[in-house]
From TrEMBL:
Residues 174-203 are annotated as: Disordered. It is an enzyme of class 5 (isomerase). Residues 4-148 form the Pseudouridine synthase RsuA/RluA-like domain. This is Pseudouridine synthase. Gene3D superfamilies: Alpha-L RNA-binding motif, Pseudouridine synthase I, catalytic domain, N-terminal subdomain. The lineage of its organism: Bacteria, Pseudomonadati, Pseudomonadota, Gammaproteobacteria, Oceanospirillales. Keywords: Isomerase. Belongs to the pseudouridine synthase RsuA family. Its EC number is 5.4.99.-.
Length: 203
């Protein structure tokens, strides 16, 4: 069996447990020894981050070879049009090469806890929300993709990684799942129903 921790990483928090500059880290919200993040989420992005004490599981989740699809909810400046959506779906060329085709659709504003600081409506009077699913993990890829099609990202929340969903976790909350699979060859497919427990950010 392997333990997997699903964390809602807050805005302006590093995806690591230490920092020499005094910024917020994972140690502020999850007090479980011996766990490491499977991949990362940018300091100014929010949402689902997976952690485990099983190195093989971390590798299987995070390694680009396994192409875990990742879905993001993205608040964009301006009203996204069909031209931009079609470009994202077809794949666009960034400075580090063409992207794979993405799934992209307009969505209603998701039910999320307010961000601190909030998006200033005076500076950004017109915004729209996009659900974007990609199977790559380039540096700041989603932000670069939306900027490329003319709609800068204002807020970015990762909603899922493979089969794992952010669900109703609030910023700083996490839950534990026990995967009933051999530790030597774990994967995202779970046999049987995982056991889960949920924790809140320490006060």
């Amino acid at each position: 069996m392997s333990s997997l921790y699903l964390l809602h990483k807050p805005y302006r928090m590093l995806s690591q447990f230490t920092d020499n500059e005094g910024r917020a880290t994972l140690a502020d919200v999850i007090k479980v020894p011996g766990v490491y993040a499977a991949g990362r989420l940018d300091y100014d992005s929010e949402g689902l981050l997976l952690l485990s004490d099983d190195g093989a599981l971390i590798h299987r989740i995070a390694h680009p070879r396994h192409k875990q699809p990742k879905t993001y909810w993205v608040q964009l400046e301006g009203q996204v049009d069909d031209t931009a959506l079609n470009a994202l779906r077809a794949g666009i060329t960034l400075k580090d090469g063409p992207t794979r085709p993405a799934k992209a659709r307009l969505i209603a504003p998701p039910a999320l806890a307010p961000r601190e600081p909030a998006i200033d409506p005076k500076r950004h009077p017109s915004t729209s929300w996009l659900e974007l699913t990609i199977s790559e993990g380039r540096n700041r890829q989603v932000r670069r993709m939306t900027a490329h099609v003319g709609f800068p990202t204002l807020r970015l929340i990762r909603a899922s990684i493979g089969a794992w969903q952010l669900g109703d976790l609030q910023p700083g909350e996490w839950r534990k799942e026990t995967l009933h699979a051999p530790r030597k060859a774990p994967g995202p497919q779970r046999s049987g129903k995982p056991s889960a427990s949920r924790q809140r950010k320490p006060s």
